[in-house]
Design goal:
Number of strands: 6
CATH topology of the largest domain: Rossmann fold
Distance between the termini: 30 Å
Strand content: 15-25%
Helix content: 25-40%
Largest sheet: 4 strands, parallel
Bound molecules: zinc ion
Length: 230
């Protein structure tokens, strides 16, 4: 299936990477029909949204948003899978641009000075060849122009897939996973931490720890997707 799909993309690059339909007109990477079936959250304009509430009491952050709902078997799941494991970097840019449009239009994120992707461990990044969160940032920066901090926040501990762990296990597993190389580069700045998906929030919580330990740092959070019902 993957081989066939990849071959098809090789010879017909102008196909939707979610459903395989030919792209027309101004469509990029994903067709209008798939875009329309994406369950949008509209959280950018909603301060007390599900993603923000999930982090409340755990992370002291400014504004939190996620653009689309994720659940088993929906279009978002296909999209995330393609972005994360199938090298669909163009799709990451397209969705990042969409995230940036929402951030800009909401004006809740106007104070953000720097985009910070949640990093992969360097071993995982070498194997995958790219970091999907960084690619989302590149898309965001096109419609919400801010510089991207590429390698100041680092993942120092290699963690296995968290999918089958309980929430408590995930949190214990994430403790001390991230570090900041040069804290002075972030001091006093308002950072936007960017990730592909928020499930329990354990990853962004762990990534915020070394950031919020720096003098004067404020953190806002944007993920492409959030696990939850709609
Ligand atoms: Zn499609």
């Amino acid at each position: 299936m993957t081989i066939l799909r990849n071959l098809r993309r090789l010879f017909f690059p102008h196909c939707c990477c979610c459903c395989g339909a030919p792209l027309v007109g101004s469509e990029h990477d994903v067709c209008t029909r798939c875009m329309e079936t994406l369950p949008l959250t509209h959280y950018a304009t909603l301060p007390d949204n599900l993603a923000a509430l999930r982090l409340r009491g755990r992370v002291d952050c400014e504004a939190v948003t996620a653009s689309v709902f994720f659940r088993e078997g929906n279009t978002t799941q296909t999209m995330l899978h393609n972005i994360k494991y199938r090298g669909e970097i163009g799709l990451a840019h397209t969705m990042g641009r969409f995230m940036g449009e929402e951030l800009a239009a909401s004006h809740r994120f106007d104070g953000v000075e720097l985009l910070v992707p949640v990093p992969l461990h360097r071993r995982k990044q070498r194997r995958r060849g790219y970091n999907q969160s960084l690619e989302l940032c590149r898309g965001i920066a096109e419609s919400f122009p801010r510089p991207i901090s590429v390698d100041n926040l680092v993942r120092t501990v290699y963690t296995e897939s968290q999918t089958h762990k309980s929430r408590i296990d995930r949190m214990a597993n994430m403790e001390g996973v991230f570090a900041v190389r040069q804290p002075e580069l972030f001091a006093g700045r308002h950072l936007l931490l960017v990730d592909d998906v928020m499930t329990t929030g354990a990853t962004v919580e762990a990534a915020c720890q070394p950031l919020l330990a720096i003098d004067g740092v404020r953190v806002s959070i944007a993920t492409l997707a959030v696990a939850g019902d709609y």
